[in-house]
Amino acid sequence: MFEKDPLYRKLFVPFVRLSLVDLPSANSIQCCLPLVRKVSILNYVGIINMRKVILYIAMSIDGYIAKNNGNVGWLVGDGSGPEASGSYPSFYETIDTVIMGWNTYRQIITELSPEKNPYEGKISYILTHKKKENKADTFFINDDIIEFIQTLKSQSGKNIWICGGASIAQQLIENNLIDEYHISIIPTLLGQGIKLFSDSSNEKQFRLIRTEEYNGIVDLVYEKR
Fold it and tell me: I want to staple 163 with a disulfide (CB 3.0 to 4.6 A). Which of 96, 100, 137, 179 is the partner?
């Protein structure tokens, strides 16, 4: 029905030819932005099914995602179900894009998984001011986080995982760009550390989608409303 529509041919056909691998450079992202705004019309009539931006992250009972020195060794359950796989495997299948900051990336490659890319097969974007050489599926970008996420969200594909850190998450939260919050509550009180949520003057309300409990960890999944 839409294939013969001039608006469809002008906007939708060129748009779907763009892929995530076309996006590592700032120039390509800037070129996409006018098209993203136009494609909102197509989203409205239901031609394009928008991807979700998901904050999937663990935090302590008192709201911290890491100690002040970045240590995350406390991200474990209470030992009541050590064999439980948790929600991560099923969540991981729903995404094809991983977003993180430099500190999170550095911790992964130097401490958490120095021998192997844990997100192999996914496209990873590292937001940083540092000039680094792109790899096969890892791109280092220095672009406006808000415009960049809006551009990615309007591309075809699976969901987008906001992996960390706190600064990126807080900017997206403040600009209402997180569609789904998947927060794993770790049975630990840190007392101090790096907060997930910063102070804000904007109230935000959510709808509970589901909960899950394993090994003393409780997953809370909310969507914005």
Answer: 100
Tens of pLDDT along the chain (225 residues) come to 434 444 333 333 333 333 333 434 444 444 444 444 444 444 444 445 689 999 999 999 999 999 999 999 999 999 999 999 999 999 999 999 999 999 999 999 999 999 999 999 999 999 999 999 999 999 999 999 999 999 999 999 999 999 999 999 999 999 999 999 999 999 999 999 999 999 887 889 999 999 999 999 999 999 998
> Alpha-carbon distance 51 to 75, whole Å?
28
Report the CATH number that the domain containing residue 67 is assigned in CATH.
3.40.430.10
* Number of structural domains found in the chain: 1
Residue 113 lies in a domain: yes
pTM: 0.78
